[in-house]
Amino acid sequence: MIFLAKVAEVPDGERKLVQVNGVSVALFHHEGRFYALNNACPHRQGPLIRGTLEQTAEGGRCFIRCPMHGWRFDLATGDSHGRPGNATVYPLIRQDDELYITL
Ligand code: FES
User: Is residue 41 in contact with ligand 1, taking CB distance under 6 Å?
Assistant: First the structure.
């Protein structure tokens, strides 16, 4: 388990790029939930941290749209909906006011 960030560092609606053991992790805080993804889009390594968040009516799911070519990924699962690669999502653990992940 690796320390990622303090909860207070990423208010709801914000995002933060964190380097963890040489990996760029895009941390999102969206409507009370935190999500951690590998920042590199599986298509051509576009920076997901600069993507557009999209909320849909699909069970309240939230997506990140890559700023490079528009592939869309489920924030919680990394699912790319038929594209030939999913985003890597890291399990997040919250302990009090700190967030941890496993790579
Ligand atoms: S690099 Fe992300 S869609 Fe192409």
Answer: yes
